[in-house]
Amino acid sequence: MKILVVDDDPQLRSLVGLALDRAGFAVVTAADGQSALMQAARELPDLIVLDQGLPELDGLEVCRRIRAKSDVPILFLTARDDELDRIIGLELGADDYVTKPFSPRELVARIKAILKRTRGSMTAAVLRHGRMTLEPTRHACTVDATEVALTGTELAILKCLIQSPERVTTRPALVDQVWGAGSPVSDRTLDSHLRNLRAKLAGAGLSDAIDTLHGVGLRMGPCRG
Predict the structure, then answer these.
(1) Do β-strands 217-220 and 96-100 pair in parallel, antiparallel, or remain unpaired?
(2) How far apart are CA 98 and CA 85, in angstroms?
(3) What average pLDDT does this structure show over 103-109?
(4) CA 60 to CA 151: how far, in whole Å?
(5) Positions of E strands within the chain
(6) C-alpha angle 197/44/70, rounded to 5°?
(7) If phi over 0 gives left and psi between -120 and 50 gives alpha, with beta otherwise, what is residue 135?
(8) How confident is the model at residue 123, as a pLDDT?
(9) pLDDT in tens, 155-187
(10) CB 35 within 8 A of CB 60
């Protein structure tokens, strides 16, 4: 599997590239935002590791432009004090983030977890609920005849809920199912993905897609309108 590593620090690119190479990944790199866009279009990576603090065209704008055309998983590298940027990154469609300084071993583990859940979400049969149809093998979600573009993480969340639409899933259980047991994913990260998912489904005509039972958990809504 191919990973695109985007960072303006050549030492960091080398460090991450070496760790990924040892883990069995093919690695391509880019040093700035424009090069990242060209490499993403040319190399079609399975995942992008993207620094937010790129010169000229920053990582947030790179993410925005990639998300307009592709659902490739994106993992952001962020400075430890850039909490707002992390939130914005997640709302733009990033799948996860790792703060600097970081352990290359942790980074590789996060990448493997993202790839596992995005590919794992593609193993189920066609799932239907109300006006919604989910086809994980095609990475497709449709409302009536309208296709809704979802990221890998959004699809994984929706798949977890739609498999048992009447069951209430607690937030910790949902995090474990999507990100893996023991994953250090915060409530704010989950909320960002849920907010994006609800907005996309509402835009397709489903304002009742996901119900929140405060203090209990989440379940599918009726998906009627």
Answers:
(1) unpaired
(2) 12
(3) 92
(4) 16
(5) 2-6, 26-30, 47-51, 74-79, 96-100, 127-129, 132-135, 140-143, 146-148, 210-213, 217-220
(6) 25
(7) beta
(8) 52
(9) 889 998 998 888 899 998 888 888 877 777 778
(10) no
- Alpha-carbon distance of 96 to 102, in angstroms, equals 14
Residue 71 φ/ψ, nearest 5 degrees: -105, 20
Q: Is the pTM of this model over 0.70?
A: no
Residue 219 identity: R
Residue type for 111, please?
I
Q: How far is CA 47 from CA 29, 102, 129, 194, in A?
A: 12, 18, 30, 21
Identity of residue 176: D
- Model confidence at 7, pLDDT cuts 50, 70, 90, reads very high
44 backbone φψ class: left, alpha, beta (φ>0; ψ -120 to 50): left
Report the C-alpha gap between 147 and 145 in whole angstroms.
Answer: 7
